[in-house]
Specification:
This protein has 353 residues and is mainly α. The protein is built from 17 helices and no strands. It starts with 6 loop residues before the first helix and ends in a 12-residue tail after the last helix.
């Protein structure tokens, strides 16, 4: 007589999960048969419903165990064949589902690729991408008002092709369109202006064109080019005091940019001696003295500049540039000097970083 651990094998139902699960219906039936207890009619009906006919017959003592074993083995073999066929069918169904999903995904991405290629070849899309690249190149990442868009993009394309902006566009950028005048656009604008005046100077030899070119080179962070250009001017041939002073003042500003302060002071002093009533050499000397730490002398030069026509706003803008170029310690010293000198006029420096 088999023990409880082999009861499922004894009755040839070891392929059925319920035969090994305690308290399951099949397990209870097997244990009842093993112990000789009668089987309820409900359980008998369940055996028939499950196709366990051999076990049903045995539970009713309608056939000997040997006949039961033969029939039960046959039923188990059939169940295993059916289970194998079911697993294969389920596996095939899963593979078909996976294949179908792969086809669907492939079709989806093929459609996306086709749409992307269509967009890439679409003139509107090409124009949109070019506009986006152009805006990125010139640092315009803010929203452009619809009524400003054509004008802004036309200016960017013009600069990108190496051309100058018109006077109207230049004025508009400095006024109504100043929110679009990014640092990158500003550099490009001044570079084109510098190139234009340099070409004019080479063609005409007019030193005013060299001065204008140098001023624009300074504004597009190219003081070295401005210095080379101004060095090439034969200053000994300049006869008019105004152009002599303009060249010296501009060259002094360039030397200041290059942090050649001694040379900047000499050039500023020369320009002031030539045109003593012009405020521009005075603002240059004010800025250079502040940057050298001669704050009282710098203040006095700025005062002379105001006396000669510079506005206090001009001086304030100039001092902002000095503060921007100064290191942390010097910035603190300049602020302290200005506040001590005139706390009302220079209170704005407290807001400068």
């Amino acid at each position: 007589m088999p023990n409880l651990t082999t009861i499922a094998q004894y009755y040839f139902v070891d392929d059925l999960p319920g035969a090994s699960i305690p308290s399951s219906r099949l397990r209870n039936i097997l244990e009842s048969m093993q112990s000789g207890r009668s089987i309820s009619s409900q359980s008998l009906g369940w055996l028939q419903a499950q196709g366990l006919n051999a076990l049903y017959q045995l539970s009713q003592n309608r056939q000997p165990y040997e006949k039961f074993a033969s029939d039960a083995k046959s039923e188990r073999s059939d169940r295993r064949l059916i289970a194998t066929a079911r697993r294969e069918a389920e596996g095939a169904a899963r593979r078909a589902t996976i294949l179908e999903e792969e086809k669907r995904q492939a079709a989806y991405w093929a459609q996306r690729d086709a749409e992307r290629l269509a967009r890439k070849s679409d003139p509107k899309h090409i124009a949109k991408m070019k506009n986006r690249e152009l805006r990125a190149r010139y640092g315009i990442d803010l929203f452009i008002e619809p009524h400003d868009f054509p004008r802004v993009m036309a200016m960017l394309r013009k600069l990108d092709c190496g051309n100058r902006l018109s006077d109207d566009d230049s004025v508009w950028l400095a006024t109504s369109g100043r929110e679009y005048f990014s640092a990158e656009l500003r550099r490009a604008f001044h570079q084109r202006e510098a190139e234009y005046f340099l070409a004019e100077y080479k063609q005409t030899g007019d030193p005013w064109n060299a001065v204008n070119a140098s001023s624009h080179y300074r504004k597009c962070d190219a003081p070295g080019k401005a210095n080379d250009l101004l060095d090439s001017i034969p200053v000994q041939r300049l006869k008019v005091a105004k152009i002599q002073a303009a060249v010296a003042t501009t060259h002094g500003g360039v030397k200041r940019d290059l942090r050649c302060f001694d040379e900047a002071l000499l050039l500023g002093t020369k320009a002031h001696a030539i045109t003593p009533e012009n405020f521009r050499p005075c603002t240059l000397l004010g800025a250079v003295n502040f940057e050298r730490g001669n704050y009282a002398e710098g203040r006095d030069w700025y005062a002379k500049a105001v006396e000669r026509g510079a506005t206090e706003r001009n001086v304030e803008d100039d001092l902002r540039g000095v503060l921007l170029r100064a290191n942390k310690l010097q910035r603190q010293e300049i602020k302290a000097f200005l506040i001590a000198d005139d706390p009302i006029r220079f209170k704005w420096v407290l807001g400068e970083r």
